[in-house]
Amino acid sequence: MKLYPIPTGNFKLDGGAMFGVVPKSIWNKIVPADENNMCTWAMRCLLIEKDDRLILIDNGIGDKQSEKFFSYYYLHGDDTLEKSLAKYGFTPEYITDMFLTHLHFDHCGGGIKWNKDRTGFEPVFPNATYWSNRRHWKWATEPNPREKASFLKENILPMQELGLLKFVEDENFDLFDIIYVDGHTDQQMLPKINYQGKTIVFMADLLPSIGHIPLPYVMAYDTRPLITMDEKARFLKEAADNGYYLFFEHDAVNELCTVKHTEKGVRLDKTYAFNEVFN
User: Residue 193: which of 127, 128, 244, 133 has the closest Cα?
Assistant: First the structure.
């Protein structure tokens, strides 16, 4: 097995929304904001090469929405999904499994694209199975008013319409273990991967960055913030007890970290570039 970080570009989100009740005087020291109160975040995916499978976890924001839509998010940086795959000798056609932690636009928008004449949609990964789970699919396709703007039908429905979609609980999914969490959105899936004698957990939106490790540091985007806090507490204890490496999708600076127990609770231990730990 081999693992590869796949950066797909950066975007900006409101710092207050990303840190919830934590005041700017505190979070701005962790992730500095620009003059518009916007902070830079990564969209970093993870590629798993395993036997004859090539599994991509999440796929970024894509490029099919309107100029007005993208103007809200200030896309920037030189990384793209295609460039990052090409770095390791792959193209989207090589992907066999497209695993989606959840269906918010910044996690799944890169999986569907316009066809050549822009009359409909086609898969970015034409040879891949697209994986979700039944509860989250229902949640995303029958969205609540709070999340409706994050679940874009053009990102989601074509997976099923094109016959690409499968649900992990229906197929005895065994490519890696899955941790289910419900605070951010219903039935978000966090891959838990054993690799080179270590355990990596893809954090998705349970922990967007190292700045979100303290329990009260919860995004205003979360639908059930108290559940997020409980899920974080349980997970961070397990991670500190077992020496897990946490892989960050949205931290623009840090790819990996470990955590440790302290008198104030579980806190950051060390940060790492991926290639410092794994080869």
Answer: 244
